[in-house]
Amino acid sequence: MSMNPIIRHRLEEQGFCGLDDATLAEVGPWLRWSPVLCTFFMILGVAIQSPVVLWSLAATAFFGAFLPFHPFDLLYNYGVRHFTGTRPFPHNGPQRKFACGLAFAWLIATGWAFYMGASTLGFALGVPLILVAALVSTTHICIPSIIYNFLFRKQGPGSV
Length: 160
What we know:
The protein is mostly helical. It has helices spanning 5-13, 21-27, 33-47, 51-66, 71-84, 94-115, 119-139, 143-152.
C-alpha cells in the first residue's frame, strides 16, 4: 500500500517515524482522532467561556505530555479500532508530547482568563488555540511539532 509522501512527512514531523507505508496508511487518518476531540472541546469551552471545560481538557493535555499516548488515544485503542478493524496507534514521540505540553499551558491560561471575567482575553487566547488544533485535525500540519523540530532537531551530517 502506497503512502502519500506529503502526509508521511507531516506525520513524521509529529514524531510518527520509522513506520512502514501500510501502517501509516491504515492509522494515519485515525491519528486525527485525539486532535479532533481536543478541537471539539476547545470550541465548546471557548464558546461557553467555561474554565471547567478548558481546565478538564488541560488535564488530558498534561497527561498527553508525559505518557506515551494521549488519554483520548485510549478511546480509539480500546474501543473504536475494534469496530474499524485497524491496528492501535503507535506511541507519541517528543513532538506530540511537546504539543500537548504547549496546549496544557495555553488551555490553563485561556480558562484562567474566562475565570477572571476577562472574556476578550479568553477569546484572544482561545480562538488561535482552536485554529492550531483545527489545522492538525484537518491537515496533519502540527505547528507545535514544527516548532519542536526547529528548536530541538539535531543538525549534522545526513539530517534534513
